[in-house]
Amino acid sequence: MIAAQVQQQLLQLLGPARCRFDQESLVTHSYDATPMLQALPDAVVYPETTEEVQCILRLANEYRIPIVPRGAASNLCGGTVPVSGGIVVVLTRMNKLLELDTDNLTATFQAGLNTKQFHREVEKKGLFYPPDPSSMVISTLGGNIMEGAGGLRGLKYGTTKDYVIGLEAVLPSGEVLRTGGKLYKDVAGYDLTKLLVGSEGTLAIVTEATVKLLPAPLVRQTMLVAYTDIYAAARSVSRIVGARIIPATLEFMDQPTIQVVEAYNHIGLPTDAQAVLLIEQDGQELASVRKDMEAIAAICAEEGADRIQTAADEQEAEQLMKARRSALSTLARIRPTTILEDATVPRSRIADMVLAINRIAEAHQINICTFGHAGDGNLHPTCTTDARDKEEIHRVEEAFAEIFEEAIRLGGTITGEHGVGMVKAPYLEWKVGEAGIELMKGIKQAFDPNGIMNPGKIFAKSARKRLVISK
User: Which residues lie below 8 Å from residue 227, measured CB to CB, with a gap of 6+?
Assistant: First the structure.
């Protein structure tokens, strides 16, 4: 419990409607989209201005109260679970689009603005904001920034960190830090903007951001390619990019995923295929897009594709892309608990990684379906299980530990876009090493000397022992 005088000051600042201590509010803010993680906060607050955020942080810093920034809580790493209690700061009421600057091709918004809503407003001006996380209908832009979110268009266009060029953030001391601006070039000192993107609320609370925009593509074409040989699918991915063709979307689904998605959605997917690629190209000119798609089809045919299907119209294109975008929600129907992870490897090692995931799943006698962003090597092994079966959950945890180690062995990383949070914290040292952990802790100490910002995230109390995997 936080002290009575702190409760009183929060009530004076925000009023009872925006400062909650009741059990219902505490419970509904005790978890996020990550399965099997829950912890009660001591208070939930809903600021509407940067000045209110400043006051909240000053108060929390004075009394050493943990602060957990929260958007829509759609993250999958336990990033907004208040594991140490404290105050959950919900930013969804700070949801204004402050400016759409068509001269500088930038947009400035508050952190609580819904991602999909922002996309719609930008597109009304004939512009384009590429980062498209699968949670975009639910998620907030501030949450995307804190997690360094990616999406299906990451190969061609990059991820959130490539578009954020300015931030307003409140430090634990209550001071406001402003970085960057409407500038495409700025090398004045350390790049604090990039440092804050992906910092998972452990350094400061982002209240406003400025991002760069692009002209909207005028033409889009979509293709589905099926393979009986998973290595042929992986070779196709490498050859497409090697041919200097960068598709807007280059997605992968393995056979278990294909079969589940087709069973529930009846899209017409080839359930006998070992793998499918879903490929989309966009651009300003039909001739250029068509040329790329013809070249991609030729490469896939040369690599032994069994089926190459180009969407005849926008409706069919939407159906094909629905296959990939609906993968998680479809898999979630199978069993009570769905655990979605992400691990990234060089795109040339995708087949090796998928086969390793299948081998590990079989060894631990669990069900894992794999899909993801083949173009940038970011795979999402997804386990359907039941949290009530403790013995099976233990096998799931051991399997994912082996998957993370295998990703590192293949030259990859433990997370490509979901963040570290609580889930990956025990494995972070495997990737960055002891020196990297100590350097990150030093940065954390410089920003947050009292350790109030989202404690229990990124840094594990102790690193997990690495497994020895037989090769």
Answer: 233, 236, 273, 274, 275, 276, 277, 303, 304, 305, 306
Tell me, yes or no, whether 376 and 417 share the same domain: yes
In a domain, 437, yes or no: yes
Q: Rg (Cα) of the chain, in Å, rounded?
A: 23
pLDDT score, position 319: 87
- How would you class 82 by CB atoms within 10 Å of its CB: exposed for 0-12, middle for 13-18, buried for 19 or more? buried
How far, in Å, CA of 234 to CA of 257, rounded? Answer: 17
Which residues fall within 8 angstroms of residue 459, CB to CB, at 6 or more apart? 425, 428, 437, 440, 441, 444
Both 116 and 193 in one domain: the answer is yes
Per DSSP, 117 falls in state: H
| Residue at 377: amino acid letter | G
Domain boundary, last residue among 90, 105, 121: 90
- Strand duo 337-340 + 214-215: pairing: unpaired
Number of domains, the chain: 4
Residue 453 lies in a domain: no
Please give the residue range of the domain that contains residue 211. Answer: 97-215
Percent of the chain residues topping a pLDDT of 70 = 99
Quick check: is 459 in a domain?
Answer: no
Q: Is the pTM of this model over 0.90?
A: yes
3-state SS of 438-460 is HHHHHHHHHHCCCCCECCCCCCC
pLDDT in tens, 202-220: 999 999 999 999 999 999 9
Same domain, 205 and 233: no
Of 227, 171, 222, nearest to 199 (Cα)? 171
Beta-bridged to residue 208, according to DSSP, are: 110, 168
State the number of CA atoms in the 13 A half-sphere of 314 facing the CB: 4
Give the residue carrying structure tokens 């810093």.
Answer: 61
SS3 at position 389 = coil
Residue 457: inside a domain: no
Domain stop point among 57, 74, 90:
90
